Amino acid sequence: MTTTAVPPLRVDLHLDRESCYRAVKSRDRRFDGVFYTAVSTTGIYCRPSCPARTPGYANVSFHPTAASAQAAGFRACKRCIPDATPGSPDWDVAADVVGRAMRLIADGVVDRHGVEGLASRLGYTPRHLTRLLTQELGAGPLALARARRAQTARTLIETTAMPYADVAFAAGFSSIRQFNETIREVYAASPSQLRGRRGGAATPGTITMRLAVRTPFAGARLLAFLAHHLVPGVEVAGPGWYARTLDLPHGPGTVRLRLHDEPAAGTTALVAAEFALEDLRDTAAAVERVRRLLDADCDPVAVDDHLAADPVIGVLVRGTPGLRVPGQVDGDETAVRTVVGQQVSVAGARTVAGRIVAEHGRRIESDIPGLTHLFPRASALAGADPASMPMPRARGRALVGLATALASGDVALDRGPDRDDVRAALLALPGIGPWTADYVAMRALGHPDIFLPTDLAVRAVLRRLGRLGRLDGETGRQTGIDTERWRPWRSYALMHLWNTLMPDTSAGTTGPATSPAVSKEI
Known about the structure:
Blueprint (H helix, E strand, L loop, with lengths): L16 H9 L10 E4 L4 E3 L13 E4 L2 H6 L3 E2 L13 H5 L2 H10 L2 H14 L3 H12 L3 H19 L4 H7 L5 H12 L3 H5 L10 E9 L2 E2 H10 L6 E4 L2 E8 L2 E8 L2 E2 L5 E10 L5 H12 L5 H8 L6 H6 L11 H10 L5 H15 L1 E2 L9 E2 L3 H5 L10 H16 L10 H9 L6 H10 L12 H9 L25 H10 L23
Parallel strand pairs: 2-4
Antiparallel strand pairs: 1-2, 1-3, 5-11, 6-10, 7-8, 8-9, 9-11, 12-13
Helix pairs in contact: 4-5, 4-7, 7-8, 7-9, 15-18, 15-20, 19-20
């Protein structure tokens, strides 16, 4: 099946009908989650790749979100399950208020704090935010949150044997009645009809899900990166798997992921994830944060097509299709770890971070050996004596200053504020330079277009490739390398360079090998 004939689509309410219909006719899986097809003759909405007979052009309309289709009176197709798709990659590419709102809604902000809380995080009034989302996505924040709750509930119903009352509250519904009514309206079926005989054995507080990601998916290389940067007590890894602790809104949790390669392009892969949660109300937040870690909404075909022909990194891209930019489960943690890792080796940064975790992190009980602590919250580190930190005094002051800014809300890394504003706030802090601010933007804020020309590991790889030119002290660019042509995917180009330094996990190593290059990141 040819996929290149369909041009890229911008996610907004004014989807081009011709382009959308061509994607539907070709059953192009790249657009699953980018838009939804509603069929007037059946009252059903589908994903573009639905295997059902292609509806007539006159009978279809296109919606940018599942919530928009539901608000228009359509119910989800039982065959293709359209709401169980990766999200739109445009949320991170554009990073406008709509994209940032979608990330926060997926994290459960509306369920926990209401529309007012969401609007406050974004810097808008509730009325203006509702108007913006309705104009762009065809649904307001309440409808978008409702659609997310319905999808989470359906996944729990079909993949676990949890009692329906537990499913309702785990998905974010405020009552059993609201849960039942929403499921019937969205899926035209009762919870018991959705479950059928598919529920498995239930373990209290444990939920096993399969998280959708677009392909190709270089799961083994993502595992290699995560295993190379493990922080003792917080993360562990083994052959084909990675696990870590989660500091969630209502209590602690853990997740264990099975990661392997899915090289076939144009399909949807499923990553097995086993969550152990103290409070099931954190289910949606835990899932969204792990999806960020996986870079699950990336469009790898678009990224690889753009970079594969490049004379510098093309051979790397062709050799590792579907490479992801590892995200994060907590923005504050990522920022702290970045400062800890400034100008030291990865192994050294891991050791220091482990000592900080043991001193300031909260202990938890876990069935996974090696997971003993939550990463320290910013508020815990803000009160620490910089001199007590296991690092040079200046970096200790920078770490405590960063933690203070995070704890006070002067710097917010929850993807709510504008990225440029966050970068400016970080650079205003003592000891935080452009490398640190940009690395945090890439990992914590999901920025797809970051390049770090002064990174020591990057320079080592480019030198090995024979591509390292003179470093321009004014621009920070290296002569002879036009990184502008890698836009808007420079973060992925950076990962391909770093990937050459990652250890091979195929032998089943549970800890990271020490790279000969000194890197600034952890």
